[in-house]
Amino acid sequence: MKPLQGIRVLDLTRVLAGPFCTALMADLGAEVIKIEPPQGDDYRHIGPFVDGHSALFALTNRGKSSVVLDLKADEGKAVARQLAATCDVVVENFRPGVAAKLGLGVEALRKDNPALIYCSISGFGQDGPYSDLPAYDIVVQAMSGLMEANGEEGGAPLKVGEALGDLMAGLYAAWGIAAALVGRAQTGQGASLDVAMFDALFSLLPTSHAIHFYAKSAVERVGNRHPLSTPFGAYATSDGHAIIAVLGDRQFAALCDLIGAPEAASDPRFASDEARTQNEPVLKALIEAWTGKLTTAHAVEGLRAAHIPTAPILTMAEAASSPHAIARGLVSDIPHHGLGTAPVIGQPIRFNGEKPVASSGAPALGGGSRAVMASLGLTEDQISGLIAAGIVRTE
């Protein structure tokens, strides 16, 4: 099932947030035309590399057609405007105001295409006192409240290992575009979407929101444990750690029985989730007196048998090769112009039991230039002239 089949997207994005958004749309059948400068998307030049091809670019640009356009030249801007007039969606992640200066802002493009859905992705949004600040993921993690809440208890703030600010902005952008397409189908009206990495990350902190807005308390770093529920974290075993996630008195009583301390279930210090959290160090020591004598595998086996949510902490290699990941088809190998095939993760949702994924890998730089120019009605002489002038580049 390809629910975005027939939707044409002009992708004016680079690096991660925007390309991640449009890759999700390509998985679902959208035709995505990626506009790149003559040197290509920055991610083409960021490793790791396989046979000269960037892994990050391959993962986030699957299913797209690459058109090289010099947007500093008037002719390049004119071609981009022609393309936008044929598209359902435009996605851009320039600094606020740059697209308008290029003549590719929402007002200019919707004059020719009133039903256009125009999505702008940026670090801090199109307005507000921070809107002009440059923003990479670590900047937004630092300013959103996420980094302050993340880290070892008593330790320094830590960024999350992945670029969640970029990824969540891209995900929210794809969600917003899909909603706008539904709205357009009902009203015939296009939409202008303003997606900020800062807003996206800030919206994803409900535990911190609960502590700050409702409990009126400061958010504190607690490492691998949960700030509000206990036992809910990583517990040392003889060869590593086991995750134990207990929510509610029934599960806690089952845990107490399992670890050979049934009396703890009626101990006033552990009588409620709040009490257990207040007395977390004592309870952790009690649990680790049991887990510390077992390997992670044996601890997890016992916890699962007692119906207590648990897990080992897996490496990426272990997660990707797990029977469950394989059964769910989380990794797909798709054709790639330079690598033969390339592994991609793709969007994770199953539609009618199937997981849609793009049919082709990330494109060669300028690989779609001729075909896309021809789709606009340009003659071969006109296309050759643009190429000769350096406005358009082909593979």
UniProtKB/TrEMBL annotation:
Pfam families membership: CoA_transf_3 (PF02515)
Provenance organism: Pseudorhodobacter turbinis
InterPro entries found in the cross-reference section: CoA-transferase_III_domain (IPR050483), CoA-Trfase_fam_III (IPR003673), CoA-Trfase_III_dom3_sf (IPR044855), CoA-Trfase_III_dom_1_sf (IPR023606)
Origin superkingdom: Bacteria
Keyword Transferase listed: yes
Alphabetically ordered keywords of this record: Plasmid, Transferase
One GO molecular-function entry: CoA-transferase activity
Protein name (Swiss-Prot/TrEMBL): CoA transferase
